[in-house]
Amino acid sequence: MSVKSTITRALTAGAALAVTAATLLIPSSSATATQESIAKGPKPTIVLVHGAFADASSWNGEIAELERRGYPVIAPSNPLRSVASDAASVRSVIRSIKGPVVLVGHSYGGQVLTNAAYNEPNVKALVYIAAFIPAKGESAFDLSNKFPGSTLGPTLQPVPLVDGGVDLYVKQDLFWKQFAADVPRAQAKLMAATQRPITEAALKEASGNPAWTKIPSWSLIPTGDKNIPAEAQRFMSKRAHAHTVEVKGASHAVLVSQPHKVTQLIIAAANGS
């Protein structure tokens, strides 16, 4: 090999290395995204509030996916005793968290978070999943009957309480078709057996000042919901100026049957998109 050829090859290799080095110094789109993510600070804590006739385990699918994506998650027990006391319970959780919070509520849990988040500065987004989004003075009972379509009433089993109040359950043999028609029947049977009751008084209690007037909102509407008619959910979502998606044919238990779609909306809210 000639000296000239050797010099030419060396120069060519050096140029290639220079180009490679320069390329490494130029941020790729993924690197830029990572830098932006770091600049935004830590991810918000996602607080998941279950509704009536359910418990915190109804969020298991969302919890698993959110944690895989690096989000801290808390799914507290919602007492289901009264709007005011339930909201106070959730508010205590909010105030225990350092940093931003995204509040997510299913069904009656939506009414609870609407009250709990009012004037709480670290709550950055509200997410309603097949949920009530009440205005001041409205009750869950009022809103579920505002539009036709709810078949919940006849499925309820009242249980008298020693204080004179009444707990309400969904009758176990009717739970699957009423509450969770798109969930495998065996799983729905377990949900029916472990459901937590809500007091009749809580469903009829007037809501207080709504947080959605001050905090951006997102809403997921399952069109096959037999508890809260889809039309009622559309009305509430529109009034709250919520970013809204619909899941065709999904039941009231959409958080159990479609956890990935619910998680996608929660992440959109966390990102403000």
TrEMBL record:
<dbReference type="GO" id="GO:0016787">
    <property type="term" value="F:hydrolase activity"/>
</dbReference>
<dbReference type="InterPro" id="IPR000073">
    <property type="entry name" value="AB_hydrolase_1"/>
</dbReference>
<feature type="signal peptide">
    <location>
        <begin position="1"/>
        <end position="33"/>
    </location>
</feature>
<feature type="domain" description="AB hydrolase-1">
    <location>
        <begin position="46"/>
        <end position="263"/>
    </location>
</feature>
<dbReference type="InterPro" id="IPR052897">
    <property type="entry name" value="Sec-Metab_Biosynth_Hydrolase"/>
</dbReference>
<dbReference type="Pfam" id="PF12697">
    <property type="entry name" value="Abhydrolase_6"/>
</dbReference>
<dbReference type="InterPro" id="IPR029058">
    <property type="entry name" value="AB_hydrolase_fold"/>
</dbReference>
<protein>
    <submittedName>
        <fullName>Alpha/beta hydrolase</fullName>
    </submittedName>
</protein>
<keyword id="KW-0378">Hydrolase</keyword>
<keyword id="KW-0732">Signal</keyword>
